[in-house]
Design a protein that fits this description.
This protein is an all-alpha fold. It has four domains: 9-191, no CATH class; 199-355, no CATH class; 361-488, no CATH class; 496-589. The chain has 25 helices and four strands. It has helices at residues 9-20, 24-30, 43-46, 54-64, 68-72, 93-102, 114-120, 199-212, 226-242, 255-269, 286-300, 305-321, 338-347, 379-386, 405-412, 423-435, 441-447, 452-462, 469-485, 491-497, 506-515, 522-537, 545-548, 557-570, 573-589, and strands at 135-136, 141-142, 179-180, 183-184. Helix 1 packs across helix 2, helix 9 (226-242) crosses helix 11 (286-300) and helix 12 (305-321) packs across helix 13. The longest helix is centred in the middle third of the chain and has 17 residues, at 226-242. The chain is elongated, with a radius of gyration of 32 Å. The termini are far apart. Bound molecules: zinc ion (2 copies). One zinc ion (ZN) binds at residues 113, 115-116, 136, 138-139, 141.
Length: 593
């Protein structure tokens, strides 16, 4: 008996067993699958129906003529890389459990369409084992997830849920066949309740299945790959569940499904909610999956940004009537595809500066003096060195106001999606100050002797662009380590020493510039001084003494800045080295390193 197109492995084994009047566990043995009950530790049993080995493929092909390709297509691994990620699945219980809880797949159970089962005589589709399987697009029915006879999930087998075929009993493909207390449930699954589903939800299911098969449709007129499509789908479902009691679902969602969402939210609101898995985990019932599909399907079907935002609007409204902007703090830790984030931002009822609370992740050391003063107390050094935290022995005066460009690009930039400009480098400096003990962003600004308002503005602006707060803070910690390794530089003292650097000596430097094909004019001398000052103090160009020197400020700021920019773009590396050596000597002449 050949497998039907799209059939799951367990279904095929069950049907073979029914055909031969032989328990499916023994059929699996005969095929060379070696699925041993009571030995779930054994990898082959653990991975039954999830992924097949080469030996199994060869054995099944030898025994039945079923090709490796068809055999692979009966396993959940067929969706690996699209809506599932099984890349870290190995033949051990720990990895299986990790994947089990994370992925939106029903590893040992299935959903089912009663009409399909009746027509096919008990062929169970592989896609019914996806947690987003909600409706049958052929019969326009909501799938069933639980058996009315025994109350267990379909095809669960036993309450221990081993997911492996029984060796003592026959399994009739159209009957429940779950075993509870030595009794096999004989419920006829062709008689499962038939709840009609609307056309829109069926279309959403088809779109999901397209993505599952590696043919994702564009979202808001943008091409996305199947994995990103699946990620966006799960995140939108998670957002819906987060505000589940208040959100207005599209009218196409059947009442029973809407009720399932409310109950899901109510259970989470209860006292035991801490023990429930997160909002982004797979929905355990087909009704809940239907409600989520009804909403997320419409969001992902958007043809343009406006439609996407429009489809997300009920979420924003539900935030207002439900948890409120402040109650959404857990969402600030969620990673989201950019498209979804854009839509959420557009409908969120509060300024999005509060969205990504990067500050919440700052790895503060225990015992650090948290008092924020403009110049940190002397005692802080000792406290910090006896108990070095993530900021190590660095003090505020050792911190750049602008993270050096090379450091920034290598360490920090990958974690921020900032527009070009200095904001990311400024933010890196503020983050270093947080690491060294500043408790808030404004205090970090004070520690760097910035105007209070600017620190807050930078922090609020940039934190919106943090791709991964935890990763960002690791990078900042690595940067602090690097600064320390190079030997802490006292930037306060450097600024003092260079406060009179308003120009470089034209008569000395003109011939040097000429060697590199440059003509050094008086404005160039000032611009070189600005460049040197920013390099040595790691400070912002706008604060350079040369830029604001009365001798130069007769020229418009725009023109001064243009001269500075032109110089720094042109400056050859070798000449830059010479200037830096001159600057170092200047510092040393002031007794500063
Ligand atoms: Zn059907
Ligand atoms: Zn049953």
């Amino acid at each position: 008996m050949a497998p039907e197109p799209g059939e799951s492995l367990a279904s095929w084994i069950d049907r073979l067993g029914a055909d031969m009047r032989c328990p499916p566990g023994l059929v699996a043995d005969d095929l060379g699958l070696r699925v041993v009950p009571g030995a779930v530790q054994r990898p082959l049993s653990l991975l039954f129906g999830i992924t097949g080995t080469d030996e199994q493929k060869a054995a099944v092909q030898a025994a039945t003529g079923v090709s490796a390709e068809v055999f692979d297509g009966m396993h959940l691994s067929a969706y690996d890389g699209t809506v599932l990620d099984l890349s870290d699945l190995a033949e051990d219980k720990v990895s299986v459990q990790r994947v089990w809880f994370r992925e939106w797949a029903l590893f040992t159970t299935s959903r089912a369409c009663p009409a399909c089962l009746a027509e096919s005589g008990g062929v169970w589709m592989l896609w019914w084992r996806l947690a987003a399987a909600a409706v049958c697009p052929v019969h326009r029915l909501i799938l069933s997830s639980h058996c009315p006879g025994c109350g267990l999930e379909l095809r669960r087998g036993t309450e221990r849920n081993q997911g492996i075929p029984p060796r003592e009993l026959l399994v009739e493909p159209t009957r429940c066949a779950n075993r509870t207390r030595n009794r096999m449930c004989g419920y006829r699954l062709t008689e499962l309740p038939r709840v009609p589903a609307g056309e829109d939800i069926c279309a959403a299911q088809l779109a999901y299945l397209d993505a599952a098969q590696g043919r994702p449709r564009p979202v808001a007129d943008r091409r996305v790959d199947a994995a990103e499509w699946g990620w966006a789908f799960r995140i939108v479902c998670g957002l819906v569940r987060f505000v589940g009691q208040n959100i207005e679902l599209p009218a196409v969602v059947p009442a029973a499904a809407a009720q399932a969402l409310v109950e899901d939210a109510r259970r989470r609101g209860g006292v035991s909610s801490r023990r429930l898995p997160g909002y982004r985990t797979k929905p355990r019932s087909a009704l809940l999956a239907t409600a989520l599909l009804g909403f997320a399907g419409r969001v992902l079907a958007a043809g343009c940004d406006d439609e996407l935002v429009e489809a997300m609007r009920p979420f924003g409204a539900a935030v207002v009537t439900g948890p409120g902007a402040a109650g959404c703090a857990p969402l600030w830790r969620w990673r989201m595809p950019p498209l979804v984030k854009m839509a959420v931002r557009a409908v969120f009822p509060a300024p999005m500066a509060r969205w990504s609370r990067v500050g919440g992740h700052v790895p503060l050391p225990a015992g650090v003096d948290l008092s924020a003063s403009r110049t940190p107390r002397r005692g802080r050094t000792a406290a910090a060195s006896s108990r070095p935290g993530p900021g190590g022995c660095l003090e505020f005066r050792h911190l750049p106001r602008l993270v050096a460009e090379a450091d920034y690009q290598e360490l920090i930039e990958p974690w921020l999606r900032t527009p070009p400009g200095w904001s990311g480098r400024r933010y890196g400096a503020l983050a270093l100050a947080r690491l060294c003990g500043a408790r808030t962003w404004p205090q970090a600004g004070l520690a760097l002797a910035w105007a209070d308002g600017r620190a807050t503005a930078v922090a609020e602006y940039v934190c919106e662009f943090a791709a991964d707060p935890a990763g960002f803070w690791q990078a900042v910690t690595a940067l602090a380590g690097r600064l320390q390794e190079r030997g802490p530089i006292d930037y306060d003292r450097r600024r003092q020493a260079l406060s009179t650097l308003v120009s470089i000596d034209g008569s000395v430097w003109r011939p040097v510039f000429a060697e590199y094909g440059g003509r050094l004019m008086p404005a160039g001398c000032r611009a070189a001084a600005v460049w040197l000052w920013t390099m040595l103090t790691c400070d912002e160009l706008g604060d350079a003494p040369a830029l604001v020197d009365p001798g130069w400020s007769t020229v418009s700021l725009k023109s001064r800045l243009r001269t500075c920019r032109n110089l720094s773009v042109w400056l050859p590396d070798a000449l830059a080295d010479k200037l830096l050596r001159f600057g170092q000597a200047l510092l040393e002449s002031h007794g500063v390193r």
